[in-house]
């Protein structure tokens, strides 16, 4: 039987993933003056899009989770959000100045098709701003998470984790994939160890989690070992 307490805690979050860190990344990137046409893939309940919309940008969102889209539309009727997939984006070519995705790339099995779709809907010189976990550090944590969350044994948890995160990349794989698709990629040094991260460690590692972070802080790792990659991919003209 699944651990309903952990599942409920995830579903009740304001946004999927490390919301505060994602906002910090957007501040570091400096989107520029509004209005920009922005698409968020995997917009969830609309927390990030609502912030960008309030700043004067023209925002659209898609998500494969129909319940999340319903919640987003109910909470943020001002947003244009619909059910849609990152490997078949329901917009015409050159529709957006910026495409966002946070904790999305690793879930899309055909990474090349996804990136081609992002490229198609971006205007020349447009930006793809993304966050995705590091393959090297994420697999061990996901095995532990699936063991705790779904009460699975190690082998079953490994299989479940790879099914969920089916397109993980390491630093060099992500760089090569985006560059080969016509993007110039810049990685950003975004600290991830905040209250959300510490609580996640506490949920899945136990009381040892926060203590472990005091000794081994992933924010101090070299970029290729960071737990999450934050990147700006600029579409070449």
The CATH C-level class name: Alpha Beta
Name the average pLDDT. 91
Examine the coordinates and then state which fold CATH places here, giving the name of the CATH topology. Answer: Rossmann fold
Rounded radius of gyration (Å): 18 Å
Largest sheet: 7 strands, mixed
H/E element string?
A: HHEHEHEEHEHHHEHHE
- Strand composition percent: 15-25%
**CATH architecture assignment name:** 3-Layer(aba) Sandwich
Oligomeric form: single chain
Low-confidence stretches: none
Number of domains: 1
Structural class: alpha/beta
Say how many strands there are: 7
**Tally of individual helices:** 10
Give me a quick take on this structure.
The protein is of the alpha/beta class. The protein has ten helices and seven strands.
3D structure, described in words:
It is a single chain. This protein has 237 residues and is an alpha/beta fold. It has a single domain (4-235), classed as Rossmann fold (3-Layer(aba) Sandwich), CATH 3.40.50.150. The protein contains ten helices and seven strands. A seven-stranded mixed beta sheet has the order 3-2-1-4-5-7-6, sandwiched between helices.
Question: What is the element layout, followed by pairings?
Answer:
Blueprint: H1 4-11, H2 19-29, E1 37-41, H3 47-54, E2 58-63, H4 66-75, E3 80-83, E4 96-102, H5 111-121, E5 122-133, H6 135-150, H7 154-164, H8 171-180, E6 183-188, H9 195-205, H10 208-215, E7 228-235
Parallel strand pairs: 1-2, 1-4, 2-3, 4-5
Antiparallel strand pairs: 5-7, 6-7
Helix pairs in contact: 6-7, 9-10
